[in-house]
Design goal:
With 178 residues, the chain is α+β, with helices and mostly antiparallel strands. The chain contains 6 helices and 5 strands; from the N terminus they run H-H-E-E-E-E-H-E-H-H-H. The chain has a 5-stranded mixed β-sheet. Helix 1 runs antiparallel to helix 2.
């Protein structure tokens, strides 16, 4: 990793930066990551985000669409609309699992129905990163109940437990989910 890390991130290709970002993220998940690993990861993310902003400015992309990002510094997935944060999902990483802890959608954006957009983006991100999802927040549980195609992202144990909660007549369903 040391020899792969460029001295100047602005000169490295975007593809190379993404590969380094993925490898650095994996190193962060170790029991004892090196001290400079977090610094490097943040620098890589900042450079990639800077390039994305430049591409948007050059392309004249419609501001009304949503933008999704993983804010690793605050351990949350964020959804932006018109440059304003519309909502986020707080998470915690544990090995290859991602625990979805808390979801918030700004009241100003609730009427737009962005919560499902946010949840879908979170689950697709977990799928791309090959992370098992553990849905602690009620919003994630509700989304999974409405969209069973995403249940495969749960660990086998969590999937069984979740299906039991969804079973008709389950006395625990109402208590545990809220």
């Amino acid at each position: 990793m040391e020899s792969d890390f460029p001295s100047s991130l602005t000169e490295a290709s975007t593809r190379h930066l993404r590969m380094l970002c993925n490898r650095t993220y994996q190193l962060l998940d170790l029991d004892r990551p090196a001290l400079e690993t977090r610094e490097r990861y943040d620098a890589l993310v900042q450079e990639l985000e800077r390039r994305e902003r430049q591409a948007v400015q050059r392309g004249g992309v419609d501001d009304a669409r949503e933008t999704f990002r993983d804010n690793a510094l605050f351990s949350r997935f964020e959804l932006y609309r018109n440059g304003m944060m519309a909502g986020y999902v707080q998470y915690e990483m544990r090995g290859g699992d991602i625990l979805l802890l808390h979801a918030v959608v700004d009241p100003k954006f609730r009427h737009l129905g962005l919560e499902p957009v946010l949840m879908q983006a979170v689950l697709l991100n977990a799928h791309r990163r090959r992370l098992a999802v553990i849905p602690y927040c009620p919003e994630a549980q509700d989304f999974l109940a409405a969209h069973p195609q995403f249940l495969s992202l749960l660990t086998a144990q969590q999937r069984r437990r979740f299906r039991l909660l969804l079973a008709p007549g389950s006395a625990e369903a109402g208590q545990e989910r809220r």
